[in-house]
Each structure stands twice: as structure tokens, then as C-alpha cells.
Amino acid sequence: MNLTLRIWRQTGPEDKGRMVTYPVQDVSPDMSFLEMLDVLNERLILDGEEPVAFDHDCREGICGMCSLMINGEAHGPQRGTTACQLHMRQFSDGDTIDIEPWRARAFPVVKDLVVNRNAFDQIIAAGGYVTAPTGSAPEAHSVPVPKADADAAFESAACIGCGACVAACPNGSGMLFTAAKITQLSLLPQGQPERYTRVIGMVDAHDEAGFGGCTNIGECAAACPKGIPLNTIGRLNRDYLKATAKRSGTPGS
Predict the structure, then answer these.
(1) Residues linked to residue 168 through DSSP beta bridges, in sequence order
(2) Where are the membrane-spanning stretches (predicted)?
(3) Contact, 196 vs 204, CB < 8 A?
(4) What is the DSSP letter of 200?
(5) b vs e for 177-196, b when ≥16 Cβ sit within 10 Å of the residue's Cβ?
(6) How confident is the model at residue 8 (pLDDT cuts 50, 70, 90)?
(7) CB-hemisphere CA count at 13 Å for 210?
(8) What pLDDT, in 10s, does the model give residues 239-252?
(9) Which strand (E) or helix (H) includes residue 150?
(10) What is the pLDDT of residues 125-157, one digit of tens each?
């Protein structure tokens, strides 16, 4: 295939940035999207030009590094797929493809398609862990967990922290990520002692990092490559209401 790429180029955080057009020839439909960008960068380097900066690591849909807006969609047109696992067979010969970084106040652009996602680390540092010593691994099934809770916790733990939810949200909210990291602990016995201090700390860190508020539009769940459902935010909201009631000393909380 022969394609036309319109790629966001930005030399640094202070640069205004611009879209630059690059033709790419002889693209195999079996290439991944990032392999196609590799081919472009090889050509740019041979031509003495600056290659396009973009994040990547495992290229197996696990690490969450491949943060790209492709034709206005986080990770591209194929649902439940990261950009590194998106193949060029999803496009047609002669297509023009727009490639941009995540667009969110909490994710400032570092260079080209690379953004700073340290704001997610701040949310995790505010409570996304268990501080109590857990000792050695317990015997299997020695701590009973209802299957529905175990399944929901596992589902939330699948979040790879890529930031697609933030990029897709019109408000730039990171609430789906925050809810997933809270839910995977709040549904299990190990997470109970800090359940309510955790939710307050992590939501506060979310707001302080500059993320927008959640208005339940649902674009986050639609863009999530791991299928984290929207009702995960509902669980967060319930825990947050209980936590604020406990903190204020509301009777019956």
C-alpha cells in the first residue's frame, strides 16, 4: 500500500507544533502500525532528517506505552487493540492517516508523539498499593473471595495505564484509570484495611494532577484496549461517597 501520513511534529514542550505530511510507499498489510512508523523513521534517518519520536516498549499490547491518536481515535479504529497490535490491513491503499499524541492537560507533550504520563504515577503513589505485610503466599482457597468479586478485580487489574481513556474523554478525565486501580484492590480482602483512605487519596491526586471531571460520557470505556467497563467508575463513586461520609462522621456510615 501507498499511504500519506500527517504526523504531529513538536520539538519540545514549548514549541507550538504542527502537522507534517510524509508519503510512505510499499507498506505491507501485515505490518503493525509501529513497524510502519519504523519504516518511515529509517527513511528519514537515511535522508538526514529527524525521526518521529513515539513511545513503545513490549509491542505485545501489554505495557501501555504506544500512546497514539490515529485518525482521531485512541489506538486507532480497531476496538480492544493497542496501537502496537493494530495492523495495516485495517487501512486501504491511498489512505491519509492523521497521527497525533494524547491530547490532555495532564499529559503535556514531550516531543512529537511522546507525552509525559507521570500524572498516572502520582495517582498510584497516592494509594494504589497495599501497605500491610502479607507474608508468604497463602494456601490456595484459604481466603474465600466471591467469584463475582474476583472476576471484577481481575477485569480491573487488566488496565495497562496507557491513557487512552484520558485521550478519548472530552473532559480529559482519568477517572476510568483511577477507578480500575482502586477497584482491583477494593474488591479483595488484602485491600480492605485502606479501602476508604485509598479512594480519597487517589481521587484527590487525580484532581490535583490536572485531569478533568467525569461526566459519564463513556468514551473512555469505548477507547480502552482492555475493555475496562464504565461501571468501574460507579464502584469508585460508591466507595468515595462512603469514604467522605466516614470522614465527616455521618451517622450510619
Answers:
(1) none
(2) none
(3) no
(4) H
(5) bbbbbbbbbbbbeebeebbb
(6) very high
(7) 10
(8) 999 999 988 776 55
(9) helix 147-157
(10) 999 999 877 778 777 778 889 999 999 999 999
